[in-house]
Structures are given as structure tokens and as C-alpha cells.
Amino acid sequence: MKSIRNVLVVEDEQIIRTTLREFLTSEGFIVTEAGSVAEALALVKQKDFSVAICDVRLPDGDGIQLLRRMQQLNSDLLVLIITAYATVENAVEAFKAGAYDYLVKPVLFDDLHHKLERLFRYRELFLENQSLRRELARQQPFEDLVGSSKALQEVQASIRKIAATSSNVLLDGETGTGKELFARVIHRTGPRAHEKFLAVHCATQPVELLEAQLFGQRQGVHSSATTDQPGVLLHAGEGTVFLDEVGQLPLPTQAKLLRAIEFQEIMPLGATEPVRVSARIIAATTRDLEREVGDGRFHEDLFYRLNGVKIRIPPLRDRLDDIPELVEFFIAKYTQSLGKRVTGATSETMRLLMSARWKGNVRQLDNAIERAVIMCEGTQIEPKDLPPDLLGVGQILPDTDDLRSALRHYEKLHISRVLRQWPDKREAAKRLRLGLSSLYRKIEELGLDL
């Protein structure tokens, strides 16, 4: 991937600037000159340069500060700093600011040419690496969807069909099922993967702020609107806007969203002319939108616009086969971030996790494993490391087919749970409908650790 050899020379001394331009042009570079900070910034806003050669001392500012501002405007820009004072402090400051290298006045042409050639080779490798990463992400769009259950495979099959289009999508699923993650996969798998993905939660802010965030606002529409704001539907360009909990949008806002979908235009707050938009919308909800329509809380036309392409995200209880893979994934995630040496979970812990109800779905499992990694004292997560409210939520599956062993397992589990809840053995015996002496005998027979 050959880079266009565009070079911006920022130097206030006309003689040096002209000399550099003549030399670089003779070596095949396309050179643009600037004599000040203001001129350089204006040029960077207008054109994408590959490299900037920038003097430290300029008449209207500091070259190091200019470096930072230019890289804010063009993150791919590589900068060579020119300084008349080659000190360690100057070099360190330049590198901290993001400079690729530095030159000392008077500039030696051989040195300059060598550094530029090396810099362009680095840039070509960097751009090639970025391209390969994008291609890899396009070829492996489902790598973030951990699991291999039938339920997950069915969702992936639907995503493959839908993602190739530009149609709007509705994701229906319980809290904690990972709807935003699935939305990102749809975006990354589709033809607009290189465009922006912007997420908005529709239930966490006042209506005025939400509408300003979605549709934008004009300067002066209220006291805090000091500049024009484009809104995410416009700012996303041809990318994707993810609307989480779309069912909680107020009815007037729903009508504006419907117009954005039907006519691909929005009216920013305080504007007098509509603005065209082309973003794809992926909406998500935990509510029954059909019932919401019947109750008058959701716009019927918007429902049909969104419900045409619908994917149901399965709850964790419908994809229990994925739990071992999810547990392994979350353990790896938190051992790295927390600096622990946890390598897995005991078989008893895994059976407990497989049998829990998981009302909070994958998010609850994520939180449970994070807590377990923190609490774990060895290399294997044990049941005691899990959140207390999880213990007893499900029944640990016995590792046996023998009925008597299974009954003994459940009896031990049940009595242990009751004793944890009612430490007074007389009260526990009453709850279990056992005599007190029978309870003591069971405790001894089952080897319960109190």
C-alpha cells in the first residue's frame, strides 16, 4: 500500500523553507509550505498530509503545541520536529507530544532524506496493518459472540442474512442479554462496517437532552446551546445508530424518529429547514412493543417500521451450553485486568453455574465471574467465591446417574440452604418438618460443614 508522499513544511524562515521545498521536490515528494501556526492549521484542515516537518519556534506559537493540534485534526499525520537546540529535554518533549523523530539545524539533506524514507516505510506498514485488521474483522465478525449453542447459531444465521442489507433492525431480548453487542456485530458484518457506530440509551435522560442528542440543535435555541450540534443521526453519516430501550421513547419523540426513518430527514431543535440523514437504525427493547401499541404507549407506524426485521436475542437459560465457554472467556478477561492467576472453575462450581436461573442473563454471569476472580484465593474458582445471592438460586447438578446418590446430593444441598437461612437448628428442623434429633442425625450422616 503505497502512501502518497505529501509533505507539509512548517518553517518561518523563508530561505530554509524554500531550500527544503526545492530539495524534497527533487526527491519526488509533493511539498506544501506554511510559515506560521495559523497557516499550518488552515492547510491541515483542508488537506490530508502524510508527513509534516515542523520547526519548534514559530512567530505565532510553539511547534510542539502545533504538533498536538495537527494530530487532533489528522490522527494519521507523522511529524518530524526541527530544532536549533538539540537537548535531551527537547527530544523527550517532542516524543511525548507524538513526534516521530527530530532534526537539528542546520538540516543535513542526507539525514532528512534518510529519516523521511524510513518514516514513509513505517507509514506504509502501519496502513497495511490497519487494512489487514479491518479485513480480519470483516472475515471474523462473530468472534465477540462467545458460545456454540444452537440458539446462538440461529441468531448468527439471521445476522448473516440481515447484515448484508441496509435495513433497520429491531433486537428483542431481556435485560442483560447483550443486545448492544449483537448490534455491533450486525454493523461490523454489514457493508457500512467502516462507518461510525453510535449508541444512545433512550431511557436515561430528559426528553429535551435526548432529542438534542438524537436530532441535534441550533445555536441559541436555549441558553446552554452556544454552538450548533449535529445530533447522532446526522453525525453517524452512513453508519449505524443503536437505540437501546426504544420502547421508552416519549410519543412525540417517536413521531420524529418515524419521520427520520420514512423520509430520511430530521429537524434539529431551533432549525427552520430539515436535514437529510442516511444512518442505519438498530433499535433494541425489553418491552412487548405490540402490547405497548395496544395500550397507546408506542406509535403503531413506528412499530411496523421497526418490527419488519426482528431478531430475538435468546436469554442465557436458552443457551446453557454456552456457559462453560462464557465462563472461560470472562475468567481470561478478569485475570488479565485484575492481575490474578485464576485458570478455571471447579466442576462443582460449573455445575452450579449451569443450573442457576440467570435472571440477569449474560451481564449477571459477567458480574458473577468478576466477583469470583476477585475472591478466589487459588487457581480454581470454587462455589464460595461466587456471589452469595447466586448460591441456592439453582441446584448444583449431581455428577452421577445413580438415583440414590442424586437424592443424597439434593438432600445435602437443601438442608445446607435451610441451615444458612435459619442458623437456629430448632427453627431449621421446624422448617424442614424434622425432629431436632433427626436433623442432628442428618447433619452427621451427610457430613455437613456448619
Which terms would index this structure?
450 residues; Rossmann fold; 4 domains; five-stranded parallel β-sheet; 48% helix; 13% strand
Explain this structure to me?
The chain has 450 residues and is an alpha/beta fold. The chain has four domains: 6-134, Response regulator (Rossmann fold); 150-312, 3-Layer(aba) Sandwich (Rossmann fold), CATH 3.40.50.300; 317-385, Helicase, Ruva Protein, domain 3; 403-446. 48% of the residues lie in helices and 13% in strands. It has 18 helices and 16 strands. It has helices at residues 14-26, 37-46, 63-73, 88-97, 109-139, 150-163, 179-189, 207-215, 232-235, 251-263, 289-294, 300-307, 323-338, 347-355, 361-375, 403-421, 425-432, 436-446, and strands at residues 6-10, 30-34, 51-55, 57-58, 61-62, 78-83, 101-104, 169-172, 197-201, 240-244, 265-266, 275-276, 280-285, 310-312, 344-345, 380-381. The chain has a five-stranded parallel beta sheet with strand order 2-1-3-6-7, sandwiched between helices. A five-stranded parallel beta sheet has the order 9-10-13-8-14, with helices on one face. It has a two-stranded antiparallel ribbon with strand order 4-5. It is extended and about 105 Å long. The N and C termini lie far apart (69 Å).
